[in-house]
Amino acid sequence: MARWPGARGRLVALALGFLIMAGGAGLGFAARPPSVWIDAPLDGTTLDQADGAIHIVGHVTEPNGVDRARLDADGARVARTLLTPEPGELVTVEFGWQPTPGRHVLSLWTRNAAGEWVGPAIATVTVEGENPEPPPVAPTTSSPPTTSKRTAKTLGEIPTP
After folding, report:
1. Quick one: fold of 35-128?
2. CB 90 within 8 A of CB 65
3. CA–CA separation, 43 vs 99, rounded Å?
């Protein structure tokens, strides 16, 4: 007749079984996902253009490491920085940005060790202030442009395929 192990033996067997199942299913042992976020300014913040350059602060990390971070404003690259952290290290990134008045969408991206861009972290901000006056246009003293002796074909003269 087989004898069941005591409570201590059952507990050890249960713990070993759980560790084997968790390891096989990837539970508890999976690498952390990449993380990118903007600390300042926070989403929904209203900023004053009179304060000058806006200071953007964010954090990036990725289990296998990151090699650069990029800040976009309204879909256009504003700044980029190269990074050399250890894999998995949390990195603080800081950028300066000269905005115009209005609503803007800031996007923070990071590039992982595999060369893939991760993100974005997004913050929508409103910048208050006045648009600067455009510079005055100086009067022109040059002569009007001359025309070439060649003439373009009119639409009716262009052959159609």
Report:
1. Immunoglobulin-like (2.60.40)
2. no
3. 16
* Phi then psi dihedrals of residue 77, to 5 deg: -65, 130
If one counts every other C-beta atom within 10 angstroms of the C-beta of residue 97, the result is 18
pLDDT tens per residue across span 66-97: 999 999 999 999 999 999 888 889 999 999 99
85 closest CA partner among 61, 116, 114: 61
What pTM did the predictor assign? 0.61
Taking the C-alpha atoms of residue 49 and residue 41, their distance in angstroms, rounded to an integer, is 13
Q: Residue 88 in contact with residue 32, Cβ under 8 Å?
A: yes
Tokens of 58: 């964010």
Q: In the chain, where are the structural domains located? A: 35-128
Q: What's the pLDDT at 132? A: 56
Helices (H), 66-139: none
Q: How far is CA 22 from the centre of its chain?
A: 33
**DSSP conformation class of 41:** S
Query: Are 10 and 93 spatial neighbours (Cβ–Cβ below 8 Å)?
Result: no
Strand order in the sheet with 91-97: 35-40, 54-61, 91-97
Strand partners, 110: 69, 118
User: Residue holding tokens 């209203």?
Assistant: 46
